C-alpha cells in the first residue's frame, strides 16, 4: 500500500511538538505492515539542509502567487516529498511564526499551498507513483482532504489526524476566494466555520476517517468542554472517529543505547541513572543531593498547566523537592520560571527554549516528570519518562489517563503502578500530587518498583501501527 502523509513538521528535521515525533516515527512502524509512506513537508531551511540527493518531480510557476518545486529525496530512512517554495518557507524563526513568537500573517496561504500540492499528488501522482490513500495531520495539512473532496482526487481515501484540537487554523472569510475551491465548498458542510474559514474543520468534514492520538481524547472531544466548538461536528461523524494511541520510537528513546546520556542504564541496572542526575544538577546549577528531582519538558502554556506549576513551586521546594524546567511558550510564564529559578537558587533551574539532547538527559536524570495539563491529546513526554524510569506525575486527561497507572495503595501493593495520576486539573489537586510523590520517593523499594514497571511497559508503535494499517486497508477496500 502506498500512502502519502502530509505534515507541517517531521522529526528529526523540524520539530515543535509531538506531531513531528509521530510524523517521523510512524512511517518506519508502518513499513512492517506493508505500508510504504512518502511524507510531503514544507521546504524549511532545516529540511532542505538534511535532504539527500533530490530530484524535482513537480513544478509550479505560481502556487498561491509564488514559484514552487516539489523535490523527491530521502533524509535518513524518511522518504520525502519537499515543497520548496522559498517565499513561503525560507524564513528565520519557527515553522509557524517569527523569532518573537508572532504567527506569520500568511500562514493560511503557506499551508493551503502545502495542502493543494498534497491533493494534486493524490490526483495525478508523480513520476509513476500515486498514493492509494492520503493521511493529513492537524490543521496545517487538513485542507488536503478538502481539496481532494472538491477536486479530481475525490475517490482517493483520506484520513485526518487531530494532534491537538485547540489549534484549528481559523481565518477570515475573505481568504476563501483565493483558495481555489469551487463555490459549493463554502458552507456548513465545507470550509465555512462560524462565518470564517476553518482549515481543520474543512478537513474533518471531508475526511473518510478521523483519528485522534489517544482513545480517551477521542471521547473527550465529543463534549463541549474539550470539543473546542467542533464537538457537534465530531459527534455527527462519531462512526468515523478512531482513537489510536501514539507510540514512541524505541530506537531513539532507549536508555540502554542512548548516546545523549552521561551514562547508559537499563531496567535491571538503575544505578546508572545517578551519573545522569549529577550531570543534570550541574547543568541547571542545582544542589548536589538526593532530594526528589522533578523535571518539566513542555510548552509553557495554560493548556499544559504551567500557570498552576508557578503557584506550586514554593510548595514543592518547601517539601524538600527540586525542579528543572526546559521549555518555551507564553512570555509571562517564561519570565516567571526564570524568576523562580533566581528566587530558589540551587533548588529550581530553568532553561528557555528547546534542546533535544538536554531533554534526553532530563528524562534519564530526573526522578519524576510533572505534566499537569488541563487537556492532553496524547502526550509523549510521559511515555519517554516511563521508558527512562522518570516517574510521570500527570493529570487524568486524554492520553495521560490512558498510559499511566496511578500509584494508589492497591496498585503499589500489586506492583503495577507506573506513576501518579491526579484529578481534577486544578492547583489543589496538583499540590496534593506533589506531596504524594515526595512521600513515595522516600520509600525506595516502592519507588524503584514503580520505575521498573514503567520501563517494562510497551509503548512502542507495534500495536498502534497495526491499528493504523488495519484502518487504512479498510478505507482502501471501501473505496473500491
UniProtKB/TrEMBL annotation:
<feature type="binding site">
    <location>
        <position position="15"/>
    </location>
    <ligand>
        <name>ADP-alpha-D-glucose</name>
    </ligand>
</feature>
<dbReference type="GO" id="GO:0005978">
    <property type="term" value="P:glycogen biosynthetic process"/>
</dbReference>
<dbReference type="GO" id="GO:0009011">
    <property type="term" value="F:alpha-1,4-glucan glucosyltransferase (ADP-glucose donor) activity"/>
</dbReference>
<dbReference type="InterPro" id="IPR011835">
    <property type="entry name" value="GS/SS"/>
</dbReference>
<keyword id="KW-0320">Glycogen biosynthesis</keyword>
<feature type="domain" description="Glycosyl transferase family 1">
    <location>
        <begin position="288"/>
        <end position="445"/>
    </location>
</feature>
<dbReference type="InterPro" id="IPR001296">
    <property type="entry name" value="Glyco_trans_1"/>
</dbReference>
<dbReference type="Pfam" id="PF00534">
    <property type="entry name" value="Glycos_transf_1"/>
</dbReference>
<protein>
    <recommendedName>
        <fullName>Glycogen synthase</fullName>
        <ecNumber>2.4.1.21</ecNumber>
    </recommendedName>
</protein>
<dbReference type="GO" id="GO:0005829">
    <property type="term" value="C:cytosol"/>
</dbReference>
<dbReference type="GO" id="GO:0004373">
    <property type="term" value="F:alpha-1,4-glucan glucosyltransferase (UDP-glucose donor) activity"/>
</dbReference>
<keyword id="KW-0808">Transferase</keyword>
<comment type="function">
    <text>Synthesizes alpha-1,4-glucan chains using ADP-glucose.</text>
</comment>
<comment type="pathway">
    <text>Glycan biosynthesis; glycogen biosynthesis.</text>
</comment>
<feature type="domain" description="Starch synthase catalytic">
    <location>
        <begin position="3"/>
        <end position="235"/>
    </location>
</feature>
<keyword id="KW-0328">Glycosyltransferase</keyword>
<comment type="similarity">
    <text>Belongs to the glycosyltransferase 1 family. Bacterial/plant glycogen synthase subfamily.</text>
</comment>
<dbReference type="Pfam" id="PF08323">
    <property type="entry name" value="Glyco_transf_5"/>
</dbReference>
<dbReference type="InterPro" id="IPR013534">
    <property type="entry name" value="Starch_synth_cat_dom"/>
</dbReference>
